[in-house]
Amino acid sequence: MSNHQARFIQLKLNQILRYDSDEVVLFSGYYEKIENINLKKIFSILHTQFNNLFSFMNEKIQVNRHYNADPSRSLKDLIQFTISFHANLKDEYAFNINDYYEDIMKSCNSFLSTNGGSTIPEDFDLINIIEDQPIFNIANTKSLSSTVSSTSVQMRLIGEGSYATVFKYKDPFYNSYYAVKRAKNELRSDELERFRNEFNDLNSLSSPFIIKAFSYDNKKNEYVMEYADETLSKYVNRSNNSLLFENRRVLIEQLFRAFMYIHTKGILHRDISLTNILVKHYDDGSTYAKISDFGNVKRLNSTLTRQGTEIKGVLNDYTDLEVIGFENYEIRHETYALGKVIYFILTGRTSNYHLEKNEALKQFILKAISSDKNSRFASVTNMKEELYSKVYPMLRK
User: Fold this and answer.
1) φ and ψ at residue 220, rounded to 5 degrees
2) 177-191 in b/e burial notation, b at 16+ Cβ within 10 A?
3) What average pLDDT does range 390-394 have in this prediction?
4) Which of 20, 235, 246, 247 is the most buried (most CB within 10 A)?
């Protein structure tokens, strides 16, 4: 999507480059924070052209209210271009048009003619030309404030799922990156309730191995949360050849602590995956695994889990859950998925478990994902005990 939108912006810039002039630089400063240079150029050109055409219209209002043929065609084309451009840009490139100028565009579009000029209606007043602020703003921005000042920062799209989109921004007050998770507009009421509950969980749970959420915006149905550097999948795949056993063991220990903690809170995650576990790196060389995406959890005291709920989670035991129903997910399904994650951390592999050469590790993963649920690990504590007592000694050899 992002590359497609970038190519679209380049195409649209080519269409309006004929309007480029020395005057454009007067407004380019208002769009300096926009990362895409082509979009920055388009906004600067449009701002210049609208101001020029609106200024000429003001002159004609005071003379004879007849807007000449060439500027009529130019303004109508420019309005149509802007409307179409606005409708087609999505996600990180979506933008807002100044409300006042947008109303002026709509009014002008109703009387502009492409032949012989246009008659300006008697009730159409002089236009207040905007020269001291941008008339276009990236829609995905976040307003920030401290005790002494306020500002807006641009957010960059970094992920998208079935229920939400995730953005990244840098807070200039704290000089740190944060993430924003925004619910999609089409969510059902129960799905939106799950989204709010996900925030409540991440906000209330207190563990260095669980992503922390900080604040919820009820108007936008989005919340600010801790930013992590990459997914577990990306981290292990990127560094598998150089990752020491001790580093792998530490990551697994962190996950054990996280899942034992949430299980004591009466929560089953139900969506364990290599992308829902994030990794954060620190300057001192330490690396922390952090569980995220609590939107699909099962709470022992919740009524949100409906009969026939669609099964989600790429590492889940679909064979069993399709028979018993996702609403009957239990701890042995949780250890099933977690076992696959642990095996991936230790080996970098996600399949052919039965071909594992280390016998202790092979027995561990086959027990975790056994088709006989009664043979699986009945708790994360059981998994940890077997890993430490039987698997790690053999891996060290």
Assistant:
1) -95, -5
2) ebbbbbbeeebeeeb
3) 94
4) 235
Q: Which contiguous run of DSSP H or E holds residue 70?
A: helix 69-88
Q: Write the pLDDT tens digit of every residue in 2-27.
A: 688 899 999 999 999 988 888 899 89
Calpha distance 185→390 (Å, rounded): 49
- CATH architecture, domain 155-226: 2-Layer Sandwich (3.30)
The yes-or-no verdict on residue 76 having pLDDT over 80 is yes
Closest CA to 348 of 297, 290, 274, 255: 274
What's the burial of 391, exposed, middle or buried (CB within 10 Å: 0-12/13-18/19+)?
A: buried
The answer to whether the CB of 229 falls within 8 A of the CB of 172 is no
Which fold would CATH assign to domain 230-396? Transferase(Phosphotransferase); domain 1 (1.10.510)
Rounded CA gap, 222 and 215, in Å?
A: 9
End-to-end CA distance of the chain: 47
Positive or negative: CA dihedral 279, 284, 285, 288: negative
Task: Determine the residue type at 348.
Answer: G
User: Cα–Cα distance between 98 and 126 in angstroms, integer?
Assistant: 17
Indicate the domain borders of the chain: 2-122, 155-226, 230-396
Model pLDDT, residue 313? 86
**What's the pLDDT tens digit per position in 142-182?**
777 766 667 778 788 888 888 899 999 999 888 999 999 99
Whether 155-226 shares its CATH topology with 230-396 is answered no
- CA 303/CA 314 separation, integer angstroms: 24
